[in-house]
From TrEMBL:
Entry keywords, A to Z: Cell junction, Cell membrane, Disulfide bond, Host-virus interaction, Membrane, Repeat, Signal, Transmembrane, Transmembrane helix, Transport
GO cellular component, as recorded: plasma membrane; plasmodesma
Membrane topology type: Single-pass type I membrane protein
Record-linked Gene3D superfamilies: Gnk2 domain, C-X8-C-X2-C motif
Species this chain originates from: Prunus persica (Peach)
Protein name as annotated: Gnk2-homologous domain-containing protein
Length: 282
Protein backbone atom coordinates (compact mmCIF):
# COMPACT_ATOMS: atom_id res chain seq x y z
CA UNK A 1 0.00 0.00 0.00
CA UNK A 2 2.78 2.41 0.92
CA UNK A 3 4.70 1.74 -2.28
CA UNK A 4 1.54 2.35 -4.32
CA UNK A 5 0.87 5.63 -2.53
CA UNK A 6 4.39 6.95 -3.15
CA UNK A 7 4.35 5.75 -6.76
CA UNK A 8 1.13 7.71 -7.30
CA UNK A 9 2.78 10.75 -5.72
CA UNK A 10 5.75 10.61 -8.06
CA UNK A 11 3.44 10.14 -11.07
CA UNK A 12 1.60 13.34 -10.15
CA UNK A 13 4.93 15.05 -9.47
CA UNK A 14 6.25 14.24 -12.92
CA UNK A 15 3.02 15.41 -14.58
CA UNK A 16 3.18 18.78 -12.84
CA UNK A 17 6.87 19.08 -13.64
CA UNK A 18 6.01 18.92 -17.33
CA UNK A 19 3.48 21.71 -16.92
CA UNK A 20 5.68 24.13 -15.03
CA UNK A 21 9.16 23.62 -16.49
CA UNK A 22 9.93 26.80 -18.44
CA UNK A 23 12.09 25.06 -21.02
CA UNK A 24 11.89 21.82 -22.95
CA UNK A 25 13.45 19.04 -20.90
CA UNK A 26 13.30 16.20 -23.41
CA UNK A 27 17.08 16.18 -23.86
CA UNK A 28 17.88 16.30 -20.14
CA UNK A 29 15.39 13.50 -19.42
CA UNK A 30 16.72 11.09 -22.05
CA UNK A 31 17.73 7.71 -20.62
CA UNK A 32 21.46 6.93 -20.60
CA UNK A 33 21.78 3.84 -18.38
CA UNK A 34 20.34 2.16 -15.32
CA UNK A 35 21.00 -0.83 -13.12
CA UNK A 36 19.74 -2.62 -10.02
CA UNK A 37 21.22 -4.83 -7.32
CA UNK A 38 20.20 -8.48 -7.12
CA UNK A 39 19.23 -8.26 -3.48
CA UNK A 40 15.51 -7.71 -2.87
CA UNK A 41 13.65 -6.17 0.06
CA UNK A 42 10.33 -7.30 1.53
CA UNK A 43 7.29 -5.23 0.52
CA UNK A 44 5.79 -3.08 3.33
CA UNK A 45 8.99 -3.53 5.34
CA UNK A 46 10.87 -0.82 7.27
CA UNK A 47 13.40 -0.79 4.43
CA UNK A 48 10.70 0.11 1.91
CA UNK A 49 9.53 2.92 4.17
CA UNK A 50 13.09 4.23 4.45
CA UNK A 51 13.53 3.99 0.66
CA UNK A 52 10.39 6.03 0.11
CA UNK A 53 11.66 8.64 2.59
CA UNK A 54 15.02 8.76 0.79
CA UNK A 55 13.50 9.19 -2.68
CA UNK A 56 11.20 11.92 -1.39
CA UNK A 57 14.21 13.72 0.10
CA UNK A 58 16.07 13.54 -3.23
CA UNK A 59 13.16 15.09 -5.12
CA UNK A 60 12.62 17.80 -2.52
CA UNK A 61 16.31 18.73 -2.31
CA UNK A 62 16.64 19.01 -6.10
CA UNK A 63 14.42 22.12 -6.04
CA UNK A 64 17.22 24.13 -4.43
CA UNK A 65 20.51 22.20 -4.81
CA UNK A 66 22.19 20.47 -7.75
CA UNK A 67 23.67 17.76 -5.50
CA UNK A 68 22.89 16.14 -2.17
CA UNK A 69 23.27 12.83 -0.36
CA UNK A 70 21.30 11.24 2.45
CA UNK A 71 21.61 8.41 4.93
CA UNK A 72 18.29 7.14 6.30
CA UNK A 73 18.81 5.29 9.55
CA UNK A 74 16.71 2.31 10.58
CA UNK A 75 15.87 0.44 13.73
CA UNK A 76 18.29 -2.26 12.60
CA UNK A 77 21.45 -2.16 10.43
CA UNK A 78 19.75 -3.91 7.51
CA UNK A 79 17.19 -1.11 7.25
CA UNK A 80 19.77 1.67 6.72
CA UNK A 81 19.81 3.12 3.20
CA UNK A 82 22.20 5.52 1.46
CA UNK A 83 21.42 7.66 -1.57
CA UNK A 84 22.38 10.67 -3.65
CA UNK A 85 21.53 12.63 -6.75
CA UNK A 86 23.67 14.80 -9.01
CA UNK A 87 22.37 17.20 -11.64
CA UNK A 88 24.45 18.32 -14.59
CA UNK A 89 26.29 21.46 -13.62
CA UNK A 90 24.67 23.78 -16.16
CA UNK A 91 21.03 23.01 -15.33
CA UNK A 92 18.76 25.64 -13.80
CA UNK A 93 17.02 24.47 -10.62
CA UNK A 94 13.59 23.84 -12.20
CA UNK A 95 15.24 21.61 -14.82
CA UNK A 96 17.27 19.84 -12.14
CA UNK A 97 14.15 19.18 -10.06
CA UNK A 98 12.25 17.91 -13.09
CA UNK A 99 15.08 15.57 -14.05
CA UNK A 100 15.47 14.10 -10.55
CA UNK A 101 11.71 13.61 -10.19
CA UNK A 102 11.61 11.70 -13.46
CA UNK A 103 14.69 9.67 -12.56
CA UNK A 104 13.04 8.66 -9.26
CA UNK A 105 9.88 7.67 -11.11
CA UNK A 106 11.81 5.60 -13.66
CA UNK A 107 14.06 3.85 -11.16
CA UNK A 108 10.96 2.76 -9.25
CA UNK A 109 9.83 0.82 -12.31
CA UNK A 110 13.29 -0.37 -13.32
CA UNK A 111 14.37 -1.56 -9.86
CA UNK A 112 11.11 -2.67 -8.29
CA UNK A 113 11.72 -4.17 -4.82
CA UNK A 114 15.51 -4.23 -5.21
CA UNK A 115 17.67 -2.95 -2.35
CA UNK A 116 19.79 -0.79 -4.64
CA UNK A 117 19.46 1.01 -7.93
CA UNK A 118 21.10 3.65 -10.12
CA UNK A 119 19.80 5.66 -13.04
CA UNK A 120 21.55 8.14 -15.34
CA UNK A 121 19.53 10.53 -17.47
CA UNK A 122 21.15 13.15 -19.69
CA UNK A 123 20.65 15.81 -17.05
CA UNK A 124 20.94 13.97 -13.74
CA UNK A 125 21.99 10.85 -11.86
CA UNK A 126 20.51 9.11 -8.83
CA UNK A 127 21.70 6.13 -6.81
CA UNK A 128 20.68 4.32 -3.63
CA UNK A 129 21.85 1.17 -1.85
CA UNK A 130 21.88 -0.53 1.52
CA UNK A 131 25.68 -0.59 1.41
CA UNK A 132 27.42 2.76 1.80
CA UNK A 133 29.08 4.13 -1.34
CA UNK A 134 29.14 7.78 -0.28
CA UNK A 135 32.56 9.39 -0.48
CA UNK A 136 34.08 6.28 -2.08
CA UNK A 137 35.96 6.80 -5.36
CA UNK A 138 34.92 4.23 -7.96
CA UNK A 139 36.41 4.22 -11.47
CA UNK A 140 34.55 1.14 -12.69
CA UNK A 141 33.40 1.54 -16.31
CA UNK A 142 29.60 1.62 -16.32
CA UNK A 143 28.97 2.65 -19.93
CA UNK A 144 31.15 3.21 -22.99
CA UNK A 145 29.62 4.57 -26.16
CA UNK A 146 31.56 5.53 -29.28
CA UNK A 147 30.18 7.04 -32.47
CA UNK A 148 31.09 5.99 -36.02
CA UNK A 149 34.72 6.42 -36.98
CA UNK A 150 35.68 9.27 -39.31
CA UNK A 151 39.08 7.77 -39.99
CA UNK A 152 42.24 9.65 -39.18
CA UNK A 153 41.64 13.40 -39.32
CA UNK A 154 44.72 15.09 -37.87
CA UNK A 155 43.04 18.48 -37.46
CA UNK A 156 39.81 17.13 -35.95
CA UNK A 157 41.54 14.73 -33.59
CA UNK A 158 44.06 17.37 -32.62
CA UNK A 159 41.31 19.77 -31.61
CA UNK A 160 39.50 17.01 -29.75
CA UNK A 161 42.63 16.10 -27.82
CA UNK A 162 43.21 19.77 -26.98
CA UNK A 163 39.67 20.17 -25.68
CA UNK A 164 39.93 17.03 -23.55
CA UNK A 165 43.35 18.09 -22.24
CA UNK A 166 41.84 21.42 -21.20
CA UNK A 167 39.16 19.55 -19.26
CA UNK A 168 41.85 17.59 -17.41
CA UNK A 169 43.64 20.85 -16.65
CA UNK A 170 40.48 22.50 -15.33
CA UNK A 171 39.24 22.31 -11.76
CA UNK A 172 35.93 21.73 -10.09
CA UNK A 173 33.38 18.93 -10.40
CA UNK A 174 31.79 20.27 -13.63
CA UNK A 175 33.94 21.11 -16.66
CA UNK A 176 33.06 22.16 -20.20
CA UNK A 177 35.12 23.28 -23.16
CA UNK A 178 35.08 23.59 -26.92
CA UNK A 179 36.93 24.56 -30.05
CA UNK A 180 34.84 25.16 -33.16
CA UNK A 181 32.55 22.19 -33.61
CA UNK A 182 34.42 20.14 -31.01
CA UNK A 183 32.69 20.06 -27.61
CA UNK A 184 33.86 18.46 -24.37
CA UNK A 185 32.20 17.83 -21.02
CA UNK A 186 33.22 16.13 -17.78
CA UNK A 187 31.61 15.90 -14.36
CA UNK A 188 32.12 14.16 -11.03
CA UNK A 189 29.54 13.13 -8.46
CA UNK A 190 29.56 15.64 -5.62
CA UNK A 191 30.66 13.24 -2.88
CA UNK A 192 34.21 13.01 -4.26
CA UNK A 193 37.01 15.21 -2.96
CA UNK A 194 38.78 17.53 -5.38
CA UNK A 195 41.72 15.16 -5.73
CA UNK A 196 39.45 12.14 -6.22
CA UNK A 197 37.45 14.05 -8.83
CA UNK A 198 40.63 14.97 -10.69
CA UNK A 199 41.78 11.35 -10.64
CA UNK A 200 38.40 10.09 -11.87
CA UNK A 201 38.08 12.66 -14.67
CA UNK A 202 41.63 11.95 -15.85
CA UNK A 203 40.82 8.24 -15.99
CA UNK A 204 37.57 8.81 -17.91
CA UNK A 205 39.21 11.14 -20.43
CA UNK A 206 42.14 8.80 -20.95
CA UNK A 207 39.77 5.92 -21.58
CA UNK A 208 37.44 7.77 -23.96
CA UNK A 209 40.42 8.93 -26.05
CA UNK A 210 42.03 5.51 -26.27
CA UNK A 211 38.87 3.40 -26.64
CA UNK A 212 36.89 5.63 -29.00
CA UNK A 213 39.89 6.50 -31.21
CA UNK A 214 38.71 8.46 -34.26
CA UNK A 215 34.99 8.30 -33.46
CA UNK A 216 32.89 11.41 -34.10
CA UNK A 217 31.73 11.30 -30.47
CA UNK A 218 32.55 9.37 -27.34
CA UNK A 219 30.99 8.84 -23.92
CA UNK A 220 32.80 7.26 -20.99
CA UNK A 221 30.73 6.88 -17.82
CA UNK A 222 32.58 5.61 -14.76
CA UNK A 223 30.80 4.91 -11.49
CA UNK A 224 31.60 8.35 -10.01
CA UNK A 225 32.36 10.56 -13.04
CA UNK A 226 32.09 10.79 -16.80
CA UNK A 227 33.72 12.41 -19.82
CA UNK A 228 32.11 13.09 -23.20
CA UNK A 229 33.11 14.71 -26.47
CA UNK A 230 31.53 15.44 -29.84
CA UNK A 231 33.29 16.54 -33.04
CA UNK A 232 30.15 17.16 -35.09
CA UNK A 233 28.99 20.39 -33.51
CA UNK A 234 25.96 18.77 -31.89
CA UNK A 235 25.86 19.73 -28.23
CA UNK A 236 25.16 16.98 -25.74
CA UNK A 237 24.53 19.63 -23.16
CA UNK A 238 22.42 22.74 -23.41
CA UNK A 239 22.99 25.45 -20.88
CA UNK A 240 19.70 26.91 -19.77
CA UNK A 241 19.35 30.68 -20.15
CA UNK A 242 16.13 31.78 -18.49
CA UNK A 243 15.26 35.44 -18.92
CA UNK A 244 13.38 37.57 -16.41
CA UNK A 245 9.99 36.66 -17.88
CA UNK A 246 10.35 33.07 -16.66
CA UNK A 247 11.09 33.92 -13.02
CA UNK A 248 7.47 33.55 -11.90
CA UNK A 249 7.20 30.15 -13.58
CA UNK A 250 10.39 28.97 -11.88
CA UNK A 251 9.20 30.15 -8.47
CA UNK A 252 5.79 28.53 -8.93
CA UNK A 253 7.46 25.30 -10.01
CA UNK A 254 9.73 25.23 -6.96
CA UNK A 255 6.80 25.88 -4.60
CA UNK A 256 4.75 23.06 -6.13
CA UNK A 257 7.65 20.60 -5.95
CA UNK A 258 8.25 21.52 -2.31
CA UNK A 259 4.57 21.16 -1.39
CA UNK A 260 4.27 17.78 -3.08
CA UNK A 261 7.42 16.53 -1.40
CA UNK A 262 6.01 17.72 1.93
CA UNK A 263 2.82 15.75 1.29
CA UNK A 264 4.86 12.62 0.61
CA UNK A 265 6.79 13.05 3.88
CA UNK A 266 3.48 13.48 5.71
CA UNK A 267 2.20 10.24 4.16
CA UNK A 268 5.31 8.40 5.36
CA UNK A 269 4.95 9.86 8.87
CA UNK A 270 1.23 9.07 9.17
CA UNK A 271 1.80 5.53 7.94
CA UNK A 272 4.52 5.07 10.56
CA UNK A 273 2.22 6.38 13.32
CA UNK A 274 -0.59 4.11 12.16
CA UNK A 275 1.69 1.07 12.28
CA UNK A 276 2.98 1.99 15.74
CA UNK A 277 -0.45 2.51 17.29
CA UNK A 278 -1.90 -0.39 15.33
CA UNK A 279 0.81 -2.63 16.78
CA UNK A 280 0.16 -1.38 20.32
CA UNK A 281 -3.54 -2.05 19.94
CA UNK A 282 -3.05 -5.72 19.18
Amino acid sequence: MMGTTLLSFFTVLVSLSCLYSPTSSSSTDSFVFGGCTQQKYVPDSPYESNLNSLLTSLVNSATYSSYNNYTIMGSSPQDVIYGLYQCRGDLAMPDCATCVARAVSQVGHLCSYTSGGALQLEGCYIKYDNTSFLGVEDKTVVLKKCGPSIGYDADGMGRRDSVLAALVGSSGPYRVGGSGEVQGLAQCVGDLSLSECQDCVSEAIGRVKSECGGAVYGDMFLAKCYARYSTGGSNFYSKGHHDKSTNDSEKTFAVIIGLLAGVALLIVFLTFIRKVFGGNGK
